[in-house]
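Module 6 notes. Inverse folding takes a fixed backbone as the condition and produces residue identities as the prediction. Think of it as a translation problem where the source language is geometry and the target language is the twenty amino acids. Below is one complete input and output pair. Work through it position by position during the lab.
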């Protein structure tokens, strides 16, 4: 789902021949009215968008109040439509347990979702990361940092696929979701050790 005509044309042109359907629409409006399920969602929302409050029915049908940036609400809305084997990949700013208790991070489990992994961007890049969202429950949040070194980043991804923590900081740790306070917090704790 893309919001402006120029991006819609570019998206269609760069994915010609692939089985991808691009929709020109306001993402939140499109997600609110769609019943479609997705195998795969990839998105990057502008960081620092205004906050909104939505009432969203959780997996038991109860209305859940969720307040967060519009981009993170779109993350939740699109992830709610993941098939059971689906995968959501989102570039996000801060996305961890230190966020507001009515925010998207704390609401994930109410919708049958979880943060499966968080990959911090390489040092000296923008303070953001890649959040991997899946349905169901898991062993915890796999956390690592991309370095920009192909060999090292390949090891990180192999560890993620195997859900194998590493002794080397940055190549993967598994953290309980309620303890994950972001990459900077993990890095600070590691330096204290």
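Target side of the pair, the amino acids:
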């Amino acid at each position: 789902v893309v919001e402006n005509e120029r991006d819609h044309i570019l998206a269609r042109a760069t994915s010609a021949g692939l089985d991808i359907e691009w929709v020109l629409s306001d993402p939140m409006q499109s997600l609110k009215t769609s019943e479609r399920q997705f195998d795969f969602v990839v998105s990057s929302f502008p960081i620092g968008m205004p906050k909104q409050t939505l009432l969203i029915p959780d997996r038991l049908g109860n209305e859940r109040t969720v307040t967060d940036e519009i981009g993170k609400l779109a993350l939740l809305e699109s992830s709610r439509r993941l098939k059971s084997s689906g995968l959501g990949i989102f570039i996000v700013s801060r996305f961890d347990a230190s966020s507001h208790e009515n925010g998207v991070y704390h609401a994930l489990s109410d919708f049958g979702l979880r943060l499966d992994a968080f990959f911090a961007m390489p040092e000296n890049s923008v303070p953001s990361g890649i959040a991997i969202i899946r349905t169901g429950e898991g062993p915890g949040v796999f956390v690592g940092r991309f370095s920009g070194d192909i060999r090292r980043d390949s090891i990180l991804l192999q560890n993620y696929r195997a859900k194998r923590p590493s002794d080397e900081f940055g190549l993967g740790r598994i953290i309980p979701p309620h303890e994950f306070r972001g990459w900077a917090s993990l890095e600070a704790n590691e330096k204290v050790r």
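Reference fact for the lab report: The radius of gyration is 17 Å.
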